[in-house]
């Protein structure tokens, strides 16, 4: 059995764009054409491939097919780029698209150096998804991304994993905040009363820090949620709350005395790993080299146990 290319493209684009309408615009066809092609593909495969939700998602049966579609698109783009084939408007090829996932803290700190290296060339275009470092592997398992940064050293099936380094997080607050809430010291009682900041509901860094600092004591402080890295750090600097901030983002404020460590003897070291598909791809190889280079300059070395 052979897979129809038009049907496969409709299926993959619906997942990438999140809806049949957006997929239709991308492929310059009608939404009904997308729906019909996906239906025919599902009939041919004999299984439901797309969850008709908002956004559209691949079912368990659709995930291997999505990975196949992404691999095919990657290899085709690399071949056309190598051949110097022009696009429909007569311009240069738009580059090899690589969907990847990364945590917000890395994106706003050390990963910015990767952008500097990519700026000089259009050979690679990134389709970035932002997800917590402890949850990014889910997108790799689904086949929605080809590569990503994760805190897990365990390789997803069909991927290989490589260590990047350690991102250190510090428990920080502004001097007025420390004076207001921790004049009597940093302990279970004062921490329970001091407002705490979390990135989102998935963020476990603050709770992990508390568990290491005070053990099994039950701590339920007032909690704010702020899901952007720069605003997170700024809220802490302005004295709204305390939170765990990567040392790279806090270096200037620490030197200026705008931020203070709550417990200088305690920090959280989060090892980061680069996951990428096991596929022969010069574009993935190039991106991997850039990511390792940027991480090597900014992250702490991992300790071999």
Automatic annotation (TrEMBL):
SUPFAM superfamilies: Periplasmic binding protein-like II, Winged helix' DNA-binding domain. Gene3D superfamilies: 3.40.190.290, Winged helix-like DNA-binding domain superfamily/Winged helix DNA-binding domain. GO terms for molecular function: DNA binding; DNA-binding transcription factor activity. InterPro entries: ArgP, LTTR, LysR_HTH_N, LysR_subst-bd, WH-like_DNA-bd_sf, WH_DNA-bd_sf. Keywords: DNA-binding, Transcription, Transcription regulation. Pfam families: HTH_1, LysR_substrate. Residues 3-59 form the HTH lysR-type domain. Belongs to the LysR transcriptional regulatory family. This is HTH-type transcriptional regulatorc. It comes from Accumulibacter regalis.
